[in-house]
Design a protein that fits this description.
Elements (H helix, E strand, L loop, with lengths): L1 H43 L3 H4 L4 E7 L7 E7 L4 E8 L7 E9 L5 E4 L5 E6 L2 E4 L16 E4 L8 E7 L2 E2 L10 E5 L4 E5 L4 E9 L4 E9 L8 H12 L2 E5 L2 E5 L7 E6 L3
Length: about 270
């Protein structure tokens, strides 16, 4: 009888230990799961790196201590490479170009240009905010001037350098001036050059339907050695009724046939 009672007591003790051990194991398992979940949320939660369409070209004029401003264009790509172009306004036409890789901070909110003395930018929706060297937002009266805006399909107020016309590259063609097109929103006027004479007129733009047309274009009357590109560009401007833009390239069309002309965006000019 005593042995039976002792055995029952020992069995109850063992069962209690197993039960307690199981509870503790379950609590530890729950804590581990919660911790892993938190870590996962921290890693994949909403931030600029994973939530925004951040790749593209951004441009603007950043403040300068001893000049009117620094015309700046920064292109950041999906492969973590970048190209930075800068020109000090009123200090000549020199454009400084650098390229390299950038890295994201652990929160996925700002990037650091590794080849540019560690310059940092906070990545927002369609804009980059220049940060100080410690990674802080710049405050005060000039804060709004430390912002670069994303081009993102816009074609106005951009210098478009002509690179191809009627299916022919103009890269190796010697001209008096660089051919270009620019649509100015300030006065709703278009300006262009075909390599010799300046041209100007009105334009109508409907970005919802990708429609673009020009009217009342006039030109100066200088005589230059090679007028072929200028004559072709004048004809393109007259015929254009639509456009497409992608990857900093603008194409002009007539009835959506083969491109009449192609232009490359130059954000620092």
């Amino acid at each position: 009888m005593i042995n039976k009672t002792l055995n029952n007591a020992l069995g109850l003790g063992v069962a209690l230990i197993i039960s307690l051990g199981g509870c503790q194991s379950q609590q530890k398992g729950n804590a581990t799961t919660t911790g892993d979940t938190s870590a996962t949320i921290l890693h994949t939660g909403d931030n600029s790196q994973v939530s925004l369409d951040w790749a593209g070209s951004y441009h603007g004029v950043l403040p300068c201590a001893d000049c009117p401003g620094i015309s700046t264009a920064l292109t950041i790509r999906e492969d973590s490479s970048y190209e930075l172009q800068t020109r000090y306004i009123d200090r000549g036409d020199s454009i400084y170009v650098e390229s390299g890789d950038f890295t994201w901070d652990p929160t996925g909110s700002h990037i650091t240009l590794n080849e540019s003395e560690g310059r940092k930018f906070l990545v927002g929706e369609n804009q980059l905010f220049a940060l100080d060297m410690e990674g802080n937002r710049i405050e005060g009266g000039l804060a709004e001037h430390y912002i670069l805006k994303k081009a993102d399909g816009r074609i106005t107020d951009i210098y478009w350098k002509l690179i191809e016309i009627n299916g022919r590259s103009i890269e190796n063609i010697k001209l008096m001036r660089e051919p270009y097109l620019r649509l100015n929103t300030a006065d709703n006027r278009a300006e262009a050059n075909g390599g010799c004479n300046g041209m100007g007129g009105s334009y109508e733009l409907n970005s919802d339907n990708w429609q673009l047309s020009f009217s009342q274009f006039m030109s100066t009357q200088m005589a230059c050695e090679n007028m072929e590109i200028e004559q072709q560009l004048a004809d393109v401007i007259q015929r254009t009724d639509s456009y497409a833009v992608a990857n900093d390239t603008l194409q002009l069309f007539r009835a959506r046939m083969a491109p009449l002309a192609k232009f490359k965006a130059v954000y620092v000019k």
